[in-house]
Design a protein that fits this description.
CATH topology of the largest domain: Rossmann fold
Number of domains: 2
Shape: globular
CATH architecture of the largest domain: 3-Layer(aba) Sandwich
Largest sheet: 6 strands, parallel
Helix content: 40-55%
Strand order of the largest sheet: 3-2-4-1-5-6
CATH class of the largest domain: Alpha Beta
Radius of gyration: 20 Å
CATH superfamily of the largest domain: P-loop containing nucleotide triphosphate hydrolases
Oligomer: single chain
């Protein structure tokens, strides 16, 4: 019989798709610990805006890679893979099961599919961050990448074009290695041994409504005050944490005098998050071969449906 601790359930999906609730319930029922695969939940000082598990939830179930880094530290997919692997060894050495949960697709793929750990250099990253701080700088860098890729008959991934963080990382890796991240990635047909991936895909209308409702809840919980405190701590000058969804929008909204009040801010943040969720869904549908996709259409049954499907697919 296989050792259950060697089989890792990975719960992926867009933001606000019941991932954390499913992971928490499974962990309670199967004596498991949770590893967060979220590029921003790892930072201290951003619990509301990054939707970190509550203190009570973390007391109920051990969580790893949540609130453990200072916002000034660099966090990349490669660093996540190294830290997650260390967590895996620790947890399995104690005979406990592991559940991975998150929506950072590239981070998940880097670890689960054994993609090569790309180099990173804080000085190089910061220099590129300054260059890409303006729209002109971003467009110049992107044109350079597209020109070089065209000459070498390479395709530029859409997420590099749409996601400033991916553009920054591409520039950094290219300067350090002479190649782009997508060149260095190994072709994979499936995940490494032990990983079982499940992707939660809520009905799009349902997901949009959930995102907008949660956005309002986060604002009521003090997201604006959290953003102000993070800005005072230098959030907008950090190498990675500055890309946390919504914080820059809040600060710029306040600088403009908060036109329209909280309702206008909720609309703005909701729209940003919906756009992000759409990109996440596109990623997971195309970048995770071997994953089991779980459509969720009825909100009152979503949690139980996902838990049951994952339990049935995992060894007892």
């Amino acid at each position: 019989m296989p050792d259950p601790s060697e089989h890792i359930a990975v719960i992926l999906g867009p933001t606000c798709s019941w991932k954390s609730a499913v992971a928490l319930q499974l962990a309670k029922r199967h004596d498991a610990e949770i590893i967060s695969c979220d590029s921003m939940q790892v930072y201290r000082g951003l619990p509301i805006g990054t939707a970190q598990p509550s203190e009570e939830e973390q007391r109920e179930v051990p969580h790893h890679l949540v609130g453990c880094l200072d916002i000034h530290e660099l966090y990349t997919a490669s660093r996540f893979a190294e830290m997650a692997e260390a967590c895996r060894r620790d947890i399995t050495s104690r005979g406990r099961r592991i559940i991975v949960v998150g929506g950072s697709g590239l981070y998940a793929k880097t670890w689960i599919y054994g993609m090569p750990l790309l180099p990173s250099d804080l000085t190089v990253s910061q220099a590129w961050s300054r260059k890409l701080a303006t729209e002109e700088g971003r467009q110049t860098a992107l044109l350079d990448i597209q020109r070089e890729c065209a000459e070498r008959k390479l395709e530029v991934p859409s997420d590099v074009i749409l996601n400033p963080r991916r553009l920054l990382r591409a520039c950094e890796v290219h300067q350090l290695t002479g190649k782009f991240p997508w060149e260095l990635a190994k072709a994979s047909v499936g995940p490494r041994h032990g990983f079982r991936q499940f992707c939660l895909l809520p009905d799009w209308t349902l997901l949009r409504a959930r995102i907008r409702a949660r956005t309002r809840q986060m604002l009521k919980a003090g997201w604006v005050e959290e953003a102000k405190a993070a800005a005072a701590n230098g959030l907008l000058e950090t190498p990675t944490a500055r890309q946390a969804l919504g914080y820059r929008d809040i600060l710029e909204f306040l600088q403009r005098g908060a036109p329209g009040g909280e309702e206008a801010l909720a609309e703005l943040l909701g729209n940003r998050t919906v756009q992000y969720a759409r990109r996440q869904m596109t990623w997971f549908k195309h970048q995770h071969p071997g994953a089991v996709f779980l459509p969720l259409e009825q909100p009152e049954l979503a949690l139980s449906t996902a838990v049951k499907a994952i339990e049935e697919a995992m060894p007892s």
